[in-house]
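Attaching the record inline, Q. Sequence:
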Amino acid sequence: MDQHEYTDIGGPGGTFWTTHWSLIENARSDDPDASRSLVGLLLQRYWKPVYCYLRRKGYDNETAKDLTQGFFHEVVLGRHLIDKADPVKGRFRSFLLVALDRYLANVHRAESARKRIPPSRLVSLDAVEPPELSSLVRTMAPEAVFDYVWVSTLLEQVLEEVKTQCSKDGMGQHWNVFRDRVLTPIMQQNSPPSLAEICRTHGVTGEKQASNMVITMKRRLQAALADRVRETVASEEELTREMDEIRRFFLTAAQER
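Structure, as predicted:
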């Protein structure tokens, strides 16, 4: 991806207060709505990385699902995460992984985790398809698996958001050009079609216009990624490091497909 500069990251007065951390701060007020918002967000964003981390630790499918549910119920809703949260400690996913390891140290049987989870409190993971562990992931350390799946899930969600927003903004042609020129070749490890071919396929008037469409979409994707990552870190420096790591992941994943 092209380099993109980010400005005004800290907001007025240099404050860098982000969604994950601020939700935790609100949940400290014993507001049940804040707690539900927090667990809903974290479940959506992190259940796949947590699940895959547990699988790589050696747990089978059902045990990993039980432990994932138990972690979000006991640690997040049970306030252990809320009470120990501190944004000065760095990026949120590292904090979450430490909390997960502490949870695992205190859980000896998956059945005990299952019994402690009220079935109405969390989304059942039986309703979703657990991801298969690829041959690449099966060779990684558990911590690397957690990061790999987190970035993969983040990219999937952000790409879907950008696609949806382009449709709302009347930029469906932009998305299609970007998909065929950039995304599909990366995912399939194929050479990208020429700009002339892109123009013929999508009715673009000239190669310069097609090239500008691709640039516009790269910027949109960069901005959307930065917005998401900004929610999980507590400083501009952390944001820069996370974005650099995502860029490296994107290139590595493309080479290993």
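The radius of gyration is 20 Å. The chain has eleven helices and no strands.

More tomorrow.
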